[in-house]
Amino acid sequence: MSFRKHNEGGWGQTLVSGLVAVIYFAPVFWMILTAFKTRQDALAIPPKLIFTPTLENFRSVFVEVTSSGEVVSTGAWLYFANSAFIAGASVLLALIIGTLAAYAFSRYPLKGNDTYLFIILTTRMLPPIVVIIPIFLLFRITGLSGTYIGIILLYTSFNLPFSIWMMKSFFDDLDREVEDSARMDGSSDWAVFGRIVLPQVLAGLAATLVFALILTWNEFIFALLLTGPETRTVPVAIASTIGGSIGVDWGKLSAMITLFLIPVFIVTFALQNQLLRGVTFGTIRK
Amino acid sequence: RMAAPDWGPTRFMQDYANETYTAPSGNNVTLEIDFIPWANFFDRVNASLNSGEQKYQMIVSDSQWLGNFVEAGHFLKLNEYIEADPELQAIMQDVHPALVAGFSTYPHVPAEEIEAAGGYAPDISYYGFPQFPDAYFTYYRNDLFCDEAENAAFEEQYGAPLPCEPADWDDVTWEDWGNYGAFFTRTAGETLAGETLSEDVYGIAYQAGKPLDFSTMQINAFLWQWGGGIWDESNEPEAQVMGVVNSPENIEAFETYLSLLDYAPPIAQTGQMGIFEIQDLYMQGKIAAIIDWAALAAPVVDPATSSVADVTSFAMMPGHMRDGEIDRSANLGGQPFVLTSWNDETVTREALDVVKWWLSEETQIAAVKAGGQSGLQSVMNNPEYDSWSPWNEYFRRSLPWQKDLWHVPEMFEMLTQQQEEFDRAITGQISAEEALNNVAEFQDELLRDAGRLD
Amino acid sequence: MSELTLTKVSKQFGGFRAVEDIDLTVAPDEVLCLLGPSGCGKTTTLRMIAGLESVSHGSVAFGGRDLSALPAQDRNVAMAFQFYALYPDLTVEENLVFPLAAEGLDARERQARLDHVASVLQLGGVLQRRPHELSEGEKQRVAVGRCIIRRPNAFLFDEPLSRLDVALREDMRGSIRRILATLNRPTVIVTHDQLEAMTMGDRIAVMRDGGIEQVGTPQDVFDYPDNTFVAGFIGTPQMTLLDGTCLGADDGGIVIGTDHARWTVPHAHFHRRPCKGDRLTFGFRPRAASLEAGALGLDGCRLVLSEHMGAEKLLHFDWHGQAVRVLTQSRAPEVDALRRVGVDLRALHVFDGDGRRLSVKGIPQ
Amino acid sequence: MSELTLTKVSKQFGGFRAVEDIDLTVAPDEVLCLLGPSGCGKTTTLRMIAGLESVSHGSVAFGGRDLSALPAQDRNVAMAFQFYALYPDLTVEENLVFPLAAEGLDARERQARLDHVASVLQLGGVLQRRPHELSEGEKQRVAVGRCIIRRPNAFLFDEPLSRLDVALREDMRGSIRRILATLNRPTVIVTHDQLEAMTMGDRIAVMRDGGIEQVGTPQDVFDYPDNTFVAGFIGTPQMTLLDGTCLGADDGGIVIGTDHARWTVPHAHFHRRPCKGDRLTFGFRPRAASLEAGALGLDGCRLVLSEHMGAEKLLHFDWHGQAVRVLTQSRAPEVDALRRVGVDLRALHVFDGDGRRLSVKGIPQ
Amino acid sequence: MHLPAAFTARTSGRGILRWLNAPERRGPLLVAPAILTLLLVNILPLLWSFGLSFFNYRANRMATPRFDGLENYVDLLGDDRVWERFVTTGLIVTGSVGLQLVVGFGLAMLFARKFPLRRVLLMLVLTPMMLSFVSVGIFFKLFYDPTLGLLSWFVAMFTGEPFAIMATPAGAIWAIVIADAWMWSPFVMLLVLAGLVSVPDYLYEAAQVDRASHWRRFKTITFPYVKGLILLALLFRTIETFKTFELVYLITAGGPGTATETIAVYAYRLGFQNFRTSEASAMAYLILFIVIVLTSLYLYLVKQRNSEEV
Ligand SMILES: Nc1ncnc2c1ncn2[C@@H]1O[C@H](COP(=O)(O)OP(=O)(O)OP(=O)(O)O)[C@@H](O)[C@H]1O
Ligand SMILES: Nc1ncnc2c1ncn2[C@@H]1O[C@H](COP(=O)(O)OP(=O)(O)OP(=O)(O)O)[C@@H](O)[C@H]1O
Ligand SMILES: [Mg+2]
Ligand SMILES: [Mg+2]
Fold first, then answer.
1. In terms of domains, do A252 and A169 share one?
2. Is B401:B330 a contact under the CB 8 Å cutoff?
3. pLDDT of E121-172, one tens digit each?
4. Residue ranges of the ABC transporter domain (chains C, D) (predicted)?
5. Which residues does chain C have within 8 Å of residue A188's beta carbon, measured at their own beta carbons?
């Protein structure tokens, strides 16, 4: 070929982008590398790229030695399980509730639609730190503090505005005649939604899911304040590696970051195509 | 149930309780600690208390928080229980008076009065017990300070030898400390103890960080040693701010503090030189001598985490020569634990049983052996005490010098503002005098508004 | 089956009246073609029949039962959408059988219907593909197929063949017509292709600006357009329309003409006579004009362009500033040549100043 | 200006050959229409000329200079895209003058060109609108305008009029044709509308499956299609094509026919004579057939459908299983009536078993 | 007896379902769960703190709060420290969001084309966004450390001097801006990329045929397509950056002095350290007000664009 289509680059492009990507990724790479280092290697300057890797840090995430020399679990697996459960449940809930609401906003506009949508967005605008006390109070009154339901509900409500805004723009972009057509073919409104509309916005759901998941997965402040020992999530555990008698426990911290990164990374990677397509689809007409 | 920061001393308490504690009452009592990351411990406790969550029966508090939560009504006043219980009285007598003053009293009562009262007096209000007491002192590299060539060079330059043995540090002043700093500050390429350096090495460091109370902790030591001081809450409302906080003594002390930062690692210029930063730098072999808390000593002598584990010795913190005597006044560290006010009688009794268990000599010795510290004089007076860890001696000897900063509820505002001003001075934006003037002005107004000043 | 009746149906979008007072009846065995320029309200009318759009006034009834208030899913009407509206995530086969779910057919019957539709519409080869893998023409056929697989109360097609090429279109036209003939349901087909309207419709309704201009059999509408709009809209190539005036009347009839020509048209030609001085429009189809003699002559037509259209040529003349078109099989003159264009009297349509037909219907073209 | 030459041009998409060994020459003053069914490679050919697609084999040359390796921006070719490709953020005016930037015109000349194009394409009223505010037809005209405002080496139009309604289309056809005539550049117009091809092209190239089936003047291609594909593709309504065999030869000529009819066709009718037993296809245009007498008769045609096409009717007959179409102005018989369809001998096209033309070109239709 | 019949139809379970299922109730029905959740968990607390902002409540005092009217707002607006924090926040928001847009846009341009290994490389660039603030904050603080940090080490390779970026107020602001921009540029990239990917090829082809320069192609084709998305990214990122708390707290703790103390950190200090609960609430509503103004501005712009299009 003597010339290329506009949207295709060759290995040259790979080289340039690769270079940029590697530079961009370097800090993350460093975090991951640190997970395999002893403390002295971790802080060594000039930085050590070649070192004897250790898995000790990963071990220390899950087991510890007590004062009496016993080896016991740190309970970290519980935090991981909690994170997965809480993030999973709240993202799903937000997606379901948000999708329904978004569909309604898109198809059955209420009076003052824009105002509702705007108010919904507004709830995301305050720094979390300043709404903590009232939320805490509310949780105390309702007895939700420290329960799974409580934190899941909270995260759900955090993800709702985003889900609604995002999904609405997807629904807005759908061809309504398709729905009309299904209606003509005798399907009930629910069937239309389930069989015709939802499959078309899968990409959007995927994109929303990824964004919401990333936010929820890493949420810290509310996890700190509103979870108890049984419902605590990983970000709180990560913070615990800071400020002990050894300041920042770099190795353990990195090990946790690394382990904690893997699930979102995998989800994002798996949904990457939809993510791009979804984002395109959802927002292009804005 | 108890809220506690997530770190060694509290983990120990949990483990040890699980192993050994059975309630004397026969009730089924377990100590269940909610471990919270240190950095966010205050936020969590604060939110819990102020929302009225009433979730915890005991709380590890910081000494400075007492006034705040006592006035808010969250912490239980212990006087009637102590009065009724000789065992508790004995404990209060055994606890070092500096700790009783810092950890337990509100309104604040100075250590001398506690000592005079023999630990317990009914007219003093008691709230807390030591969970983990702390004090700072010198960590130094004996491979440098005992190196013959370096010693010779130093002696030639300053006319005195380097303190090699811990005992040699007993009469080290801040002036000497500055000399060590200047002497050991080397850049890459120079030699140190016979080795050519590939990286810069710095002489000395102490905490000078903006986060939390870092710089205040060390600066207070200077102020007291120079004969100045902070606003004295125990003399409220007569005690003044103006002319006290920005007294000439204080200014001179603060200037000295600032001048010594010249020999510290460059992070000092950023106002981020906290206790962990100097610990890390020291463990990487980049500083000859530092001043840090007892709580941070263990990793420094652990070869797994420290490259200078084998060559580290501990010694007293330098002091200021005043009236022919070295003053080593310093700011108390560590945390008391308290009972909360909403517990019913049974819970309170059980909690006090836990207190008694924790502050029993046996438990405290175990805690110290596990790397912790104890506030009980009986433990510290144990002849073997000094040998349980290389720094115990210096903790024990430092303790009598400890004072504490304010406990009044306004202390947070005072502290934040003070940290900001100190930080400006540390990062070279303003002079020591300006900083102290700003602090004084602010405190004066604030305390007047709060009715604590006439 | 029962007939479909629209009574004074109007549709208001905000302040804009998209459809206005339409009356229409479609018999069970009848195909009505809605014809009209873009934006005239064809789709909106269809959607009101389907129940996808509420009627602002008037009523839609099947067999006398007013269904205006019924939602679409309860009307049992089949509709092929202008932009296909295929279910993007279903295969062609699934798309086709989708509407059968509501009819509750057994598997055999369903398969039979599918096979039939697929073969008629030549979709056999693409049954397993998804809509985005289809060419435009195939998509359109699926949309039609999804319609005719049903046995609804009425069929509605919105531009069902617009994306097909000529050969296929001719073919489909026949097939659909035949299927509809067997099903015996009132059918409305929207189109803006008049050839399609003429060949598929039992009757044609020509719409403009939300109203109906004329309803009638294709032949009727073609031969006797009610007004200049219909006259110009129906018929390819377009009818030639010339501005003129009524110059008076004499024994032989009414004299009409322009500055450059005057013709006498018998009184019998008019069902309503113009008065002297009235502005008129008269028109004739290009096929009815010739370069040979004719009762009415336009002298001095200058050839501007000659277009080959297969067996015939379309000659564009300029006649004193007005365009005159002639379709002829004979050889075209040189460009710029002057010719006399002759028009058969019987082929002459006369309209009044408002564009309403004056000539009688009886004159065969 | 110089001519455009394609020599053995092919395009391979992966394993699929979209265009195969095309040879074409377009003279500077010539308009060539590329005609063919959907997917036959018309757009691909155009894109190769424009330089938007590389040629897999062969060469594209202007005035003898091989430009195959040159990217589009260096070829100076104007192209109107099938889907308009208007710049969404520019107004119509900005869209129109966009290509002039590269020509470095002064403001006056630019304005003059703009005015001219806008008036020819009747875009004067929408110059300040943006593409999304235009109707499909307007968009298409802007796309064409962006092309003819330039003075490039060659013009390429991809379905330039497909979205216009009939009246406008007729009008535009003429306008574009006139402009092109003054500019004197080789022009290629892609279309699948044969009427457009016939009226706009000096020559027509009929494509199928990536190859060219026939090139010639519209009249030539219409009158003497080289093969059955071209015969069936060109001409509306479609030519009737019947399968038959060569039954032998006698003095009068060659006898051809089916089981149901036999006709003798003079030898002079063939430029290549079939042998006895050869399979043949013979065809005639519906307009050349009639229900009156004719040299060649098809007895027993059963009327299946009669379509009104304005002045004429298209009658669909079934003749022993083969479809026969007749276009007539006279009255249509009843459905199912049996009739004899007569065809004029001169209108008979004969093709061999492979579909290649056997009848001579000389016979006028 | 029509009335009772209707009554029973409504009260029986099925009747209620049917009643709920009516088309005109479909919209409210679908929105209800979302609104309820938000009302309960978000809006109630918001209102509570809004009410609080008119009192003189302090969480660490037992005294009953006194109604203060607008006093808190007046105090805050008259306080130089507050304005200083707003300026700081403005600097950080402008710097960070600006940098995010530039970097995000650049990255998107780089990844708009298809090339081998694109999927993998794209993931590398996306990762920063997936990290928690704690990890980013702690590690960037380490990177910035003049002695142990990679950045300083890297700079020192050229200058020979240890590099303390956080030693000056400007440097500290840069430190925050860089960390935040690094973390969130991928988000902007993703949105812009979405826009770029959706630019139809034929437009570029048309421009090629029209012999347009690269710059004109960018200006007339690329930019219009991503404009809307850039605005969207601007909206989301401005809202988020306005709330920046963790990064500042972890990296500089607001220092040196108060040079990097953002309005969110200040609100935290007010509410959580100084126990001026009501003032903090008032502060929160000032922030909310500003963000709402910014957002409305954005939505207004978008709407204008849309109405242009319709
Ligand atoms: N939902 C709506 N809101 C406002 N106006 C509308 C709406 N739907 C259609 N219209 C307007 O009503 C008029 C008729 O539209 P309709 O779709 O029925 O036209 P049409 O005859 O089908 O045209 P086409 O041949 O282009 O499909 C148009 O002017 C259109 O803009
Ligand atoms: N980039 C491509 N990759 C693979 N196949 C392609 C590509 N572009 C076109 N084709 C195929 O090449 C063939 C010719 O396509 P082309 O677009 O030239 O058809 P066309 O004659 O213009 O048809 P239409 O009338 O529908 O526009 C089609 O079968 C098409 O599917
Ligand atoms: Mg329509
Ligand atoms: Mg094409």
1. yes
2. yes
3. 999 999 999 998 888 998 998 889 888 888 888 888 887 777 888 888 999 9
4. 4-234
5. 73
Q: How far apart are CA E257 and CA A190, in angstroms?
A: 60
pLDDT range class, residue E87, cuts 50, 70, 90: very high
pLDDT for the residue E111: 86
Between CA D9 and CA B274 the distance in angstroms is 75
Are the CB atoms for D70 and E209 separated by under 8 Å? no
D246 Cβ contact list (under 8 Å, min separation 6): D254, D255, D256, D274, D275, D276, D277, D278, D279, D280
* Residue A285, domain member (yes or no): no
D190 C-alpha to ligand 4 centroid (Å): 8
Kindly tell me whether chain A and chain B come into contact, counting contact as 3+ Cβ pairs under 8 Å.
yes
* The pair of three-digit structure tokens given for residue C331, joined into one six-digit string: 């050889």
Distance CA B8, CA B367 (A): 10
How far is C272 from C278, CA to CA, in rounded Å?
12
Do A49 and A97 sit in the same domain of this protein?
Answer: no
Residue E75, number of CB atoms within 10 A of its CB: 14
Residue E206: which of D81, D102, D130 has the nearest Cβ? D81
Ligand 2 center to D43 CA (angstroms): 7
Task: Show which of A51, A73, A95 is a domain's final residue.
Answer: A73
**Measured between alpha carbons, how far is D3 from D154 in angstroms, rounded to an integer?**
8
Average pLDDT, chain D: 87
Using CA atoms, how far apart are residues C212 and C171, in angstroms rounded to an integer? 29
Identity of the residue in B43, B281, B420 whose CB atom sits nearest the CB atom of E272:
B43
Cβ of D83 below 6 Å from ligand 2: no
Q: Do A128 and A92 reside in the same domain of the chain?
A: yes
Does a cis peptide bond (omega within 30 degrees of 0) precede residue B266? no
Q: Please tell me whether residue C11 adopts helix, strand or coil conformation.
A: strand
Regarding whether A274 and A160 lie in a shared domain, the answer is yes
Q: Domain limits at C54? A: 4-233
In B216-239, which positions are buried (b, 16+ CB within 10 angstroms) versus exposed (e)?
bbbbbbbbbbbbbbbbebeebeeb
On whether residue C287 sits in a domain, the answer given is yes
CB D33 within 8 A of CB D191: yes
Entry pTM: 0.81
Q: Nearest Cβ partner of C78 from A182, A184, A188?
A: A184
- Cβ-Cβ pairs closer than 8 A, D with E, add up to 65
| Structure tokens belonging to residue A120 | 């919904």
B5 contacts: CB under 8 Å, gap ≥ 6:
A243, B35, B36, B37, B38, B41, B60, B335
Atom of ligand 2 nearest to the CA of D37: 25
The domain containing residue A264 runs over which residues? Answer: 76-280
Is the Cβ–Cβ distance between C110 and C100 less than 8 Å? yes
- Evaluate whether D153 touches D78 at the Cβ level (below 8 Å): no
Which ligand 2 atom minimizes the distance to the CA of D47?
18
* Architecture of the domain defined by E71-309: Orthogonal Bundle (1.10)
Taking Cα atoms as reference points, which of E88, E145, E165, E139 lies closest to residue B420?
E88
Classified as helix, coil or strand, B143 is helix
- Please give the structure tokens belonging to residue D9: 């041009």
Give CA separation, B37 vs A140, A241, C264, in Å: 21, 8, 107
Helix residue ranges per DSSP H, chain E:
2-11, 13-21, 23-38, 44-52, 71-77, 80-111, 118-130, 133-144, 150-159, 169-197, 201-209, 214-217, 223-242, 246-251, 263-268, 277-309
The verdict on C276 and C204 lying in the same domain is: no
The complex's ipTM works out to 0.79
